[in-house]
Structure prediction request, 303 residues.
Amino acid sequence: MKDKNLKNKILEAIKEKDISPKPKWQFLLKDYFLWFLGAISVFVGGVAVSLIIFTLINSDWEYYRYLSNSLFEHIVKMAPYLWIVVLGGFVLTADYNFSNTKDGYKYSVPKITGLSILFSIILGGLFYQFGLAYFTDYMLGINMPMYHGFIEKRQDLWNRPEEGLLAGTIVPLEKSDAILVKDFDGKEWNVEVGRLNRIDFIILDEAETVALIGYVKNENTFDACMVKPWRVGGENSYLRNKIMERAIREGVEPPAMGMGQGRFENMRGMMRENNADERNIFKMRNIECERGTTSPAGPKITN
Prediction:
């Protein structure tokens, strides 16, 4: 009897408030919309992962002793804080959207989170390989004045000639024992190349933009003792392959596109011979430059 009365009361309340069931299409639309938002969140998470990969690969870890006072300082300088936060935010957004779909209750939060992160990592790796990370960082830097992109940060890190670091574009000249480099601030430098190795000359000949280590001789002259191509991983591997192939063809040891353990061990030996603390980065630069390993009459530049 009580059940019958309750049933009647519910029916009367439905009639009084003119309550009607929602059509099925509204539930389906909501479900599809949540899936769509979840997919967008995973996609943005993938972009964030690609930019994290892009930053980590291009942070010049093999040169951290030149660029920073310690490995920890270099990590602090180069860590992609923004994209880690973006990744976390969109993974949580994806979790919320997927868990609120029709079948979302079937899966635990850790499982949904793990799958969201996994798909973001897979997409991030693909996006990085196809150059989307480089493109995104570049476009954000152009169109958002408040965005201090990784490319700009890296340029600032290398564009410190007073500290023995110089990077820029090679300006074509006639064959000479010096080259002209326009740095990222637009200043032109006469770069002396007499102390460079054969592989360094191949890099100068093949690359349009380079990073140099050495020291300032006067206001417009930079004496280089090491050079690396200003290549950006995630942009393309053409330049690296081109330099490697030419080095092998000419019988020169191919560059590791970094300082390499052997070269660093030589530098440590120089430090010990000079009774210098290897943590003193300025002395390390100066000693290697003073010890220049090649004849001042090295190969000619053909750029």
About this structure: The first strand starts at residue 165 and ends at 171. The beta strands are 165-171, 178-183, 188-192, 209-218, 221-229.
